[in-house]
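@channel sequence for tomorrow's demo:
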Amino acid sequence: MASPNNGTKIWTVLELITWSTAHLQEKQIDEARLTVELLLAHALKMKRIQLYMNFDKPLTAEELASYKVLLKRRLNREPVQYIIGETEFMGLPFIVDARVLIPRPETERLVEEAVRCCKVLAVGDGASLSLLDVGTGSGCIAVSCAKLIPGSAVFAMDTSAEALVVARLNAERNGVQVSFIESDIFSPAPLAPPRRFDAIISNPPYISSDVYATLQPEITQFEPRSAETDGGDGLSFYRRLAVFGTSALAPGGFLAVEHAYDQQHDVMAIFSAAGWRSLVPVQDYAGNPRCVIARDAQ
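structure tokens (generated this afternoon):
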């Protein structure tokens, strides 16, 4: 089949999907068919399902040119979520660009467990809960919690002013109220004035510098490095959260963190050494260790 660079051929939706999928597979781009459909739907201003009802639609020269720009960006290894400018998390739409980490499906497990724990607390006292998301990035955790726990007071902290711009847009897009805080968890006083929360939730940068150097270019060349790695052993944020949580968590509350599949032992050891007496490990849906729920800090 001819290439779309051949200006004489009129391409239909199905022909373009077929050619592009094969081309991406040849270049060893993951999820080639899904990627092509997302990019083409974006170029044609359609929903993905509409492509299947328009397989015979011929593309105009302008539509083809728009699609080729998007395809070239993906061939340069830019993540498809950044190219189309959005992704889905917990069934909700989120704006994403190079200012924020792309939400991962694994983090949905953290949110699900945090929401479950919050609902148990709410049944216990009937009061509005106060939640803090540390390192909010796109706001996916904070916004999802605000959506799923109506009446809760949700706060979201990040050191990046640019990330907070995106997070605010996502709160507005999903119709929830979140209070955003530009602050560094490693500062002596991250919250001014200090306050206590019923739940502290975090998906911190947990990739070690050694592992980060081996990752695919979609991550190392496009996503914000500070959201991926602490530049060390990948455990520095847990050490800080274990201490911070002892003063920032309200009595009876919990602290929930995501971690890499091989970090659960280290994370639990860090919290145990800091005086947390109840530590519950949580697996993701692939059966990998993924989260720790910490309670009862001394």
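heads up for whoever presents: The two ends are 68 Å apart (CA to CA).
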